[in-house]
Design brief:
- Pfam families: DDE_3 (PF13358).
- With about 170 residues, this protein is mainly α.
- It has helices at about 45-65, 75-80, 80-90, 105-120, 125-140, 140-150, 150-160, and strands at about 20-25, 25-30, 30, 35-40, 70, 95.
- The strands form 3 sheets. It has a two-stranded antiparallel ribbon with strand order 1-4. A two-stranded antiparallel ribbon has the order 2-3.
- Helix 4 (about 105-120) crosses helix 5 (about 125-140).
Length: about 170
Amino acid sequence: KTGEREMPKCLKSSVKYPQSVMVWGAMSAAGVGPLCFIKGRVNAASYQEILEHFMLPSAEKLYGDEDFIFQHDLAPAHSAKTTGKWFTDHGITVLNWPANSPDLNPIENLWDIVKRKLRDARPNTLDELKAAIEASWASITPQQCHRLIASMPRRIEAVISAKGFPTKY
């Protein structure tokens, strides 16, 4: 409106070159595990380090001594022969996963929840961004995780009905 052009309530700040980070996290119907902030690119060797130092503690926290099936997508580091050997050597079953199927991956919805919680944080530095991500992740409840896992039969039905095309999930 006339005269409001420079009023702070009418302005939206933006960052020309926003900070970004790559994060690895695990979830189950029981909740979330610890986060790993990743430096650089992920190859098979670095992914296996993440599995060793973050996935195994997550599995211990979320499953204790119970068996579980691990799910990840078909990123090159995930599908590398050495990564498959790592899982075999550790006695961990990996879910056979279809390519390009984010509709069936409940952690994608969890990351969306984390991102929505970050909208109001407006971090200005990399450390602030990491702290905001950690706080958002820590606020995820076991109930939220359980609901996402419980939605899997509906997700599968939706993908089948859509004949593999995108769904609301």
